[in-house]
Amino acid sequence: MGLEWFLSGSQHNITLSGLFLSCQQHRPCHDLTVKMMTEYCIHPGIFIPFDNLLALQTLRHGGVSPHPWASLNFGHNTGDSISNIDRNRTLLCSHIAIDPDAIATADQVHGTEVCHVTGGGHYSGYDAFITDTPGVFPAILTADCYPVLIYDPVHQAAGAIHAGWKGTASNITGKTVLAMQQAFGSRAAECKAWIGTGISQEAYEVGPEVASCFDSRYIQHPENDRFTLDIAAVNRDQLLAKGVKSESIALSPFCTARDNRHFFPTAMNWAAQDACSAL
Question: 79 or 225: which carries more pLDDT confidence?
Answer without folding.
Answer: 79
